[in-house]
Design goal:
This protein is an alpha+beta fold. The chain has one domain. 36% of the residues lie in helices and 15% in strands. Strands 1-2-19-18-14-13-10-9 form an 8-stranded antiparallel β-sheet, sandwiched between helices. The chain has a 6-stranded antiparallel β-sheet with strand order 3-11-12-4-5-8, covered by helices on one side. Strands 15-16-17 form a 3-stranded mixed β-sheet, with helices on one face. A hairpin with a 2-residue loop joins strand 13 and strand 14. Helix 2 runs antiparallel to helix 3 and helix 5 runs antiparallel to helix 9. It is globular, with a radius of gyration of 22 Å. It starts with a helix and ends with a helix. The N terminus is likely disordered. The protein binds glycine. The site of glycine (GLY) has 9 residues, from loops. Glycine binds next to loops.
Length: 569
């Protein structure tokens, strides 16, 4: 099995086995001296670290990693998708860039329904109709212009070289591409790139992306206009029109990044900055933390029946609010103040029966969630203490699995994150309401949660995750595993997880997350427990030491990166 995270670290730091407090079977976190980049792909991590070494700041490195992942990790790294960036500057200021996709101007609320009003299976997932207007290039370009210190050419040169000269596929790269091979075969421009003369790629083959290199060169010369105006947008629009999609030149010309204030909340003295609407991530994360704040989770024990009971009830309530109340702030009034009020959290706590599972029928629609491991997160900290958390995505791995000819750009299937029909589940089994119905130029609700944590004004953690609907509970558990259970940052990323999203009314557990007697105790309380995998990859940087309170001089940061994706192959 190929250990990608180990490779992902080698470019940036040293494995400090002796310094780790590890009591579990995780490898020690990797230490960085003057700054750190942590991503799921070694080549992207190396590019980010080179930018830091050459004097670039965290935003320069984040932009370079964003473009590089679009080349070396086409499953989720992208130019054809969108995402979020949470930034905390060394002086304590924070900001948030929303470069998530928007529905085409021609989109309509019922566009994925058949004549009988039923959702057409997979219509929102595969092919050009599933594609929303991409935002990644606009987001990366704005971040660099406003907060970076290097030129576009400097930060994009490594991605261009990797696309042009190619890179050697490892086992996980090849296996990832082969998961989508049947869909690539149906789209000749995708097949020409992501299949090797019609056959699956194998470990050790070189993936060259000549068209993508040309697109990247154009963006390096012209900035976002190189993508949103002129031949690239025209090619995407032409392919969309020829294949039943809705994208128009006006969609590209009108795309604009939103800059907002992050959602913020506190938990046991830690202050969190995370994604505001159109993400549900920050709101749901903070709502769960508000509910959990007074509970002695540490005393109750990691993944004990009691801990899981209270955490699941917090998840249940937060996901009802997430699914029903949150949406694009340009279209709906998000009740953020009400949901994050500490009194609201207290009222929810008062409803939790200490001995009995709650019941989702009593508090608010659902079907089985599909597995979600798409999307990707990366974290950056520079020498000055600037921190950048980026989560961006094509939605499903490889998005809609279509590539407009001559562009090399895989396009997203993020239209499925809309509520295609209120009350009917999307790919993640999320049953969303009217706040997230499709409208022209609207952004679909997201769970992406790039998060920065501070304490007493000092940077503590930079984290986020892939995982669809589970992103929020993965970020919650990674944070709590460090703060409440004293795990190293790598142990926290590795620790087996559980998830509840209101409906279906089940606790999903990762293999080995709970013992047979814990499961029996939960079932006696009235819970249904279902084992499921895979889960999304988390990526976290912890400042100062491998675990809280274990400061190591000479090193700024320690990283934990998930091996779950690579381990599947
Ligand atoms: N596409 C997954 C999310 O934004 O939540």
């Amino acid at each position: 099995m190929h250990l990608r995270p180990l490779a992902a670290f080698l470019a940036l730091g040293v494995l400090l086995g002796l310094l780790a407090s590890a009591g579990a079977a995780s490898p020690p976190p990797v230490a960085g001296e003057d700054g750190m980049v942590a991503s799921v792909h070694a080549l992207a991590t190396r590019v980010g670290n080179d930018i830091l070494r050459r004097g670039g700041n965290a935003v320069d490195a984040a932009v370079a990693v964003g473009y590089t992942l679009a080349v070396v990790y086409p499953a989720a790294g992208n130019l054809g998708g969108g995402g979020f960036m949470t930034i905390r500057f060394a002086d304590g200021r924070t900001t948030f860039l929303d470069f998530r996709e928007k529905a085409p101007l021609a989109a309509t609320a019922g566009m994925f329904l058949d004549r009988a009003g039923n959702v057409m299976p997979k219509a929102g997932l595969l092919g050009y109709r599933a594609v929303a207007v991409p935002g990644s290039v606009a987001g990366l370009d704005l971040a660099l212009r406003k907060y970076g210190s290097m030129s576009r050419r400097q930060v994009m040169a490594p991605a261009i070289a990797l696309a042009e000269k190619g890179f050697k596929l490892d086992e996980a790269d090849a296996a990832g591409l082969n998961e989508a091979a049947a869909d690539f075969r149906k789209d000749p421009p995708s097949a020409a790139i992501f299949l090797n003369h019609g056959r699956p790629y194998r470990r050790g083959d070189i993936l060259v992306q000549t068209d993508l290199a040309k697109v990247l060169r154009r963006i390096a010369r012209q900035g976002a206009d190189g993508f949103y105006r002129g031949p690239i947008a025209e090619r995407i629009v032409a392919a969309s029109r020829a294949n039943g999609g809705l994208l128009s030149k006006a969609d590209f010309a009108q795309y604009a990044v939103r800059e907002m204030r992050p959602i913020t909340c506190s938990y046991k003295g830690y202050v969190l900055y995370s994604a505001p609407p159109p993400s549900s991530g920050g709101v749901a994360l903070c709502e769960m933390l508000n509910i959990l704040d007074p509970y002695p989770l540490k005393d109750w024990g990691f993944n004990s029946a009691k801990t899981i009971h209270y955490m699941v009830e917090a998840m249940r309530h937060a996901y009802v609010d997430r699914n029903d109340d949150i949406g694009d702030p340009d279209f709906i009034e998000n009740p953020v103040g009400r949901l994050l009020d500490k009194g609201y959290a207290a009222a929810i706590r008062a409803h939790i029966d200490p001995d009995k599972a709650g019941n989702s029928r009593d508090i608010g629609p659902g079907t089985p969630p599909h597995e979600g491991s798409e999307t990707t997160h990366y974290s950056v900290v520079d020498k000055a203490g600037n921190a950048v958390a980026v989560t961006y995505s094509l939605n499903n791995f490889f998005g809609a699995r279509v590539t407009p000819a001559g562009t090399g750009i895989l396009l997203n299937d993020t239209m499925d994150d809309f509520s295609e029909k209120p009350g009917v589940p999307n790919i993640f089994g999320l049953v969303q309401g009217k706040a997230d119905v499709i409208a022209p130029h609207k952004t679909p609700l997201s769970s992406m949660s790039p998060t920065v944590v501070t304490k007493d004004g000092k940077l503590v953690m930079v984290l986020g995750s892939a995982g669809g609907a589970r992103i929020i509970t993965i970020v919650l558990q990674t944070f709590l595993d460090v703060v409440d259970y004293g795990m190293t940052v790598q142990e926290a990323v590795d620790a087996p997880r559980f998830h509840h999203q209101w409906k279906p009314d089940k606790i999903f557990v990762e293999p080995f997350a709970i013992s047979a007697d814990t499961r029996a105790a939960l079932e006696r309380m009235g819970y249904t427990v279902t084992q499921q995998s895979p889960w999304g990859d988390a990526v976290a940087i912890l400042l100062g030491g491998p675990a809280l309170g274990k400061t190591v001089s000479g090193y700024c940061c320690f990283a934990g990166v998930d091996d779950r994706r690579a381990a599947r192959y």
